[in-house]
Design goal:
Number of domains: 3
Length: 633
């Protein structure tokens, strides 16, 4: 059941995601056409938007002022326990974690690397510390109440992962933490889920690049997926009449998971990233009392329009109302627990669940109850690499054994520019060549409903070279979507975000004796895209790098999960990293051509109105506007 457990704590506070935005535009990777103005913050009527809204970002990710709001055991809410005076914090001994995109053409699975999570008492003493297993966000949508699509500030998304390398201090004074520690001993891990929304993009604000985070920590139990609830899955249908930046559900409720505990006779609903807000960062909007029901399988005739059997109500008003209780979201993280009678438990085992509110407010499971998704869904690979990916299939929350799954390339949610030169440089195509990523087209689930997607990486070659051939985006991005091989099981709707993203690096043969000529083009691109580094050194300058060779060697030698690892973007291939490290041991100068446009002219300025309408909305909104599925319509 992961964090959806009778034993859990909830926390609420702020996060900071000080992402760099120069690299939001794939065209900025063209070193030969790069201009200094691309490192400046976008301003009014600035087209193209230059360095976007935070060019000086350093990729820092922090948890700020996150208080533990409530704690629960299977016996109910904890009322007298020191844990209620504690906080959930990040590291007190390392630099902050980093938030990075997989690629400029896949910005919708931003990952958190190098995050340490602590439970600390009111004096800051650490009671538990653990490492957050890196993962990307999922189920991003237009949550903040702007029906016209309000950009990044309007977005909400969620992270689910595990905490490993868990270390406990003396928690004997807290019965709750003692029980959590004992329960987690079976795996040595904890399960964590947190929702992020309402990021502040106003440069003059003290909360610039900060947003709201609300989450849950519970035990991680044996056999569970790492980033997925193995339970009931409510899937929304997109509203075709809403101009959404990310996703607008037709029934006003976003995708969410649930889990049934048949022993305790309970069902857990996670609405933390599912309910609309009145405005970004506010409480949930009033969509009426929410009724959980099951489609009556005995209705005549049996159909989705048949009678519903109510299971429980989530009130909008009253003491426990999700609207009237202003602390509801912070205190519950959106998790609702409803009791089920023995008769209801029997009914839900083989019938689809539905959640309804006011007229038109509705979301349900697939009518056949079938669901399929990969557990880990973001990968980086080099030519010759092999990886096995766990893919889970369920039906009404139970493992679906012995069914065939299919896997197909799907680039529909990847992003690329389609603007016509000479106004804005068009990006190279994504997901080509198609045969560089090799995988079996089918696999069969085992008794636990798990199948293996085996992927082998070939060499995409120079797949994304810019005109002139002087620079490129290294490697290529791909998407693989799992589904059921039997089309009958693939019930609508399909969650568009349930696919696996890959960055496949190009092959690279390092010279036996690398020189600055080999190293400088790589570091020049980083110097262009991450101007915040100029506070410490000039990555494109030989003397600056040589003077800091010892520190550079350390940073490039660290594991990518370390928050000090360079580059912070995690987009440098192992082959090129190895070459840079070899050069740092013997920094031969070489000869470096000065990158320049072939005609020596500045890129032409686009006329008013050229470029994407969504550009001014920010990084993720602009990326979402470039999705191939939108461009193909």
């Amino acid at each position: 059941m992961s964090y959806l457990n009778g034993l859990r704590l909830h926390f609420a506070g702020k996060f900071q995601a000080n992402v760099s935005t120069v690299n939001n535009d794939p065209g900025h990777f063209d070193t030969s056409a790069f201009q200094a103005s691309y490192q400046t913050m976008q301003g009014p009527k600035m087209n193209p938007p230059n360095g976007w809204f935070n060019p000086e970002g350093d990729a820092t990710f922090r948890m700020l002022g996150c208080a533990i709001t409530t704690a629960w055991t299977p016996d109910g809410a904890v009322t007298d326990d020191p844990v209620l005076g504690c906080s959930v914090a990040d590291s007190d001994r390392t630099v902050p974690a980093k938030m990075v995109d997989l690629d400029p053409e896949q910005q919708l699975v931003s990952e958190i690397w190098g995050l340490e999570i602590r439970i600390a008492d009111s004096e800051g003493n650490t009671l538990m510390r653990a490492d957050f297993l890196p993962t990307g966000f999922i189920d991003i949508w237009d949550r903040g109440g702007d029906s016209a699509g309000g950009g990044d500030n309007n977005a909400g998304a969620t992270y689910q992962s595990v905490l490993h390398n868990v270390q406990w201090d003396d928690v004997s004074h807290s019965p709750f933490l003692t029980e959590l520690r004992q329960t987690a001993q079976a795996t040595g891990r904890l399960s964590i889920k947190f929702n992020v929304d309402a990021i502040n993009m106003h440069f003059g604000s003290p909360d610039f690049m900060c947003g709201r985070v609300v989450g849950t920590i519970g035990p991680y139990l044996p056999g569970e997926p790492l980033h997925l609830v193995l339970g009931r899955q409510f899937v929304a249908t997109a509203d075709p009449n809403v101009a959404a930046s990310f996703f607008a559900p037709a029934g006003s409720i976003n995708h969410f998971p649930a889990a049934v505990d048949p022993v305790a006779g309970l069902i857990y609903l996670d609405l933390g990233n599912a309910l609309l807000c009145v405005e970004p960062g506010s409480g949930p909007a009033d969509v009426g009392d929410l009724t959980l029901a099951v489609y009556n399988p005995f209705a005549t005739p049996p159909s989705p329009a048949g009678s519903l059997v109510p299971l429980g109500v989530i009130p909008a008003s009253g003491f426990r109302g999700y609207v009237s209780n202003t602390g509801w979201y912070a205190e519950t993280a959106g998790i609702v627990v409803l009791p089920l009678s023995p008769a209801q438990l029997q009914l839900v085992q083989s019938s689809p669940l539905v959640l309804t509110g006011n007229a038109g407010v509705v979301i349900s499971e697939a009518l056949n109850g079938c669901f399929v998704r990969a557990d880990t869904f973001v990968y980086r690979m080099s030519p010759g690499d092999h990886t096995d990916i766990d893919v889970y299939a369920t039906q009404f929350g139970a493992p679906l054994a012995g069914v065939a799954l299919s896997f197909t390339l799907d680039s529909s949610q990847l992003q690329t520019n389609t603007f016509t030169p000479p106004y804005i440089m068009a990006s190279p195509p994504v997901a080509t060549p198609a045969d560089a990523l090799r995988f079996g087209p089918t696999a069969t689930t085992d008794a636990n409903g798990k199948a293996t997607l085996s992927v082998d990486a070939g060499d995409p070659g120079a797949a994304r070279v810019f005109p002139g051939g002087e620079s490129s985006i290294d490697g290529q991005v791909y998407g693989i979507r799992p589904a059921f091989a039997d089309a009958i099981l693939n019930a609508e709707p399909i969650n568009q975000w349930n696919f696996v993203s890959f960055l496949l690096w190009s092959g690279y043969d390092a010279p036996a004796k690398p020189t600055w000529t080999d190293v400088q083009p790589i570091l020049q691109q980083y110097a262009n895209l991450y101007p915040s580094m100029l506070r410490f050194l000039n990555l494109a300058d030989y003397d600056s790098i040589k003077a800091n060779a010892e520190l550079m060697t350390l940073a490039f030698s660290l594991d990518v999960s370390d928050p000090n690892s360079m580059p912070v973007t995690r987009d440098l291939s192992p082959a090129k990293r190895k070459m840079i490290l070899a050069w740092l041991q013997d920094p031969l100068p070489g000869a470096v051509p000065v990158p320049s446009r072939t005609d020596g002219a500045e890129p032409p300025v686009p006329p008013p109105g050229a470029g994407p309408p969504a550009a001014a909305k920010g990084g993720k909104a602009a990326a979402a506007a470039r999705r191939l599925i939108l461009q193909s319509k």
